[in-house]
Amino acid sequence: MGQSARPERELRPAPDLPLPLHGRGVTGRSGAARPPILVLVIGAAFLLLVASLVIGSLTSPEYPAFALTRAPPAVVGDSLVGPGTYTLDASATDRWRRFDFGRNATVDSGPWDLAFRRFHLITAPGGGIVDLGPLPFDSVVELPATGYADKSPAPDSTNPAVGKWYAYSMLSHLLTSKHHVYGVRTPRGKYAKLELLTYYCRDAGTACITFRYAYQGNGTRRVAP
Fold first, then answer.
1. Alpha carbon 149 to chain centroid, angstroms
2. Are residues 202 and 101 part of one domain?
3. Which of 116, 137, 159, 194 has the fewest CB atoms within 10 Å around its CB?
């Protein structure tokens, strides 16, 4: 008996399999396109950044326990003043808060040496500042004779020697002092050393400047006992 021929198995072409291409999604079994891993990573990083900014903006800073200095101006003469600290309110945006080393106080009239407005700091015409770097305050005994940079009062200006005396956090939106020590030469040829401590206080909140200083009234550059 002759054997009947077996029908050949029908061959069908296999469905095209999607190949992952750079910049294109990969198709899953359900047919839906899946985003590439790079897009997922960028999206997750963006969400984390937004969350950190929101948390930072909602976080209330703990203000240092400095109180505004309210001592009236008093002429100090040729004596060495300090080291001491002084806290003033520099929150006004339309005027400078002036400080006179010779009277050891903020002043509204007469001679002055430094002026503050928000985070800006300038010296009086004829005076200047030199950045001595992140040194221990008490280690600065005598100030240099040269290198003092001047800056005339102008809106939104800062003495170039002071520059960015603070570091700004994008997370907390707070200003933190870099704790550099500065030498100050007044228009009257007197000298002082200065360290900006903080931009906040409990009395005034933001733009409340506290600085440490020592002022030599006898005209020498020695600013320590």
1. 21
2. yes
3. 137
